[in-house]
Every structure is written in structure tokens, then in C-alpha cells.
Write the C-alpha cells for this entry.
Amino acid sequence: MTTAPVAICCGEPAGVGPEIAAKAWAALRHDVPMIWIGDPRHLPGDTQWTEVAECADAVSTKALPVLRHDFPASATPGHPNMENAQGVIDVIARGVDLVISGEASALCTAPIHKKVLMDGAGFAYPGHTEYLAALTQAPRPVMMLASDALRVVPTTIHIALEDVRTTLTPDLLRETIMITAQSLRDQFHILEPRIAVAGLNPHAGEGGAMGTQEVEWITALVADMAADGINVTGPWPADTMFHAVARRRYDAAVCMYHDQALIPIKTLDFDRGVNVTLGLPIIRTSPDHGTAFDIAGRDMANPTSMIEAIKLAYQMASGT
């Protein structure tokens, strides 16, 4: 079992990231080694923290271990300061380096605010995932939302629904299924992962009556991958894939578009959903929510998703 800590990137200092990180450490301090990377001025005022020089020092501290990364400005909850934008970006890169070097076992990233990074530092990526892929030279990252109730992977993500039909291609779906299967084996330690594929259309097209993609290529692709040894089935009607009995038949559901995947998991387990990036050479998780500027600094933020993200990162790294 690894004893290297999970590295936690501070995220947007004016959001709830520092608050939920401090709460997560208080909840997990006896179970999961972790280290927070950021400017300690941005932590809630009552946080007990201690500065450490390296990750190895984090496992024996009695307060939140902080790998100090000074920012240009202090943070006012709810009011992001663009002067701090580059610091947020640099902390992510520093966290990646720690995991690649083996000093940290996994990376857990607190929420960022993309527009602040773009306006304040010329951030050139749509979000965390794409930046992490660039830092690790990963050819294609894949997003998974995971909880004890369900794991879902959307094949297409943040695009208009009308664009799904043209963006969804056989190559894209095949690659998504392959990356999902490999990650379930390598990172979730499931020896023979079972993958269920959702149909694109209502009733999985109902034989072409409600859409033709299933009969034209999705069914054949799934059958071809199954013949090659991947335990994959489908396409299944999405409206019958997510009840309790159906969920017991697979380890992850590969869906066709964003809401088809995210509505079920957020309905079943809203607070405990964790964003996991598959297809990277490192383990990366994050809470499944944003910066929540409206409640930042008011001690109202629910740390459950951050707690689950840190726990899952460590479980994946240690094989437990």
C-alpha cells in the first residue's frame, strides 16, 4: 500500500476550494495522507495548518500539511482576483509534477473558474481536463463521474445536443470504450470490467424507427469489440439502464452525451459524485461541483464530494 500523500491543488482561492480542503483533511486525517498546495493566507482563518518542505513530511503532521505556493494577492471569498490566476495554473502543474515523480500518489484538484484564468492569465484550455492532458502528454482524456452507486462516462461532453450526432463517430466511441475498460482494470482494479453502452436514440432507436445510428454502426461496433475480448454490451435503451437491478449488470456505463450520463448519477448520489479523468498517466480526481462563489467564506460548503474525491484517489493509488 502506498504511503505517498494525495496532492490537493488549491483551485480558485476565492471559491470554496480552500474551505472544503480544510474540512476534508479534518474528516480524513487518520485515514488518508494528503498535502495541500497553495497560499496558506487563502485557507479559512481557523484552519490549523503546518508548512512542510516536501510530500514525505505530510504523513506525520497533526495539522493540515501545506506545501507553500505564494500568490501575488490575498483572497476575498466570492470575489476572484485575476492577479492570482497564474498561481492557480502553476499549482496544477506543480501537483502533476509531484505525482509523476512519485512524491505524491495521486492528484485531487479543487474547482477552478475558467473565465478568471482565461482573462487573468490567458489560460488556453477549456478546463482542467485539457490542461492536465497537455501537462502529461495524454492523447485523449476521458471524463468519468463515479460514486458507490454508479460510474458513467459521457462519450461527447460539453457540446450542444444538436452537435452530438456529427461529433459521435465510431472511432470516438471505440476509443472511449477502450480507455474506460483499461482504466477500470488499471486504476479501479477490476480484473474483468463489464461495460454497458447506451443507445443514442430513444429505445436505442427501436430498430431504426426512432433513429438509425444504432442499426447503422453502434450495434456492430459493440459486437466487434466484444468479439475482441472486451466485456461490453449494448446499445441499451438509456431509460432502462439506471435502475437498481440494471446497475448490478455492469461496472461502468458509456453514454453518448453529457446529460445522458450525468443526470442519473446526480439523481442517485448528488453529494458523493466524483469527477475522475481517465486516459492520463496519473490518477486525478476532483469534486463534482464548481467554485460556488455565492457561499464561499460562509462555512456553508458541503465537503462531501471533496472527501469522496480524496478517498477515491487514494484507493485507486493504493489498490484498496
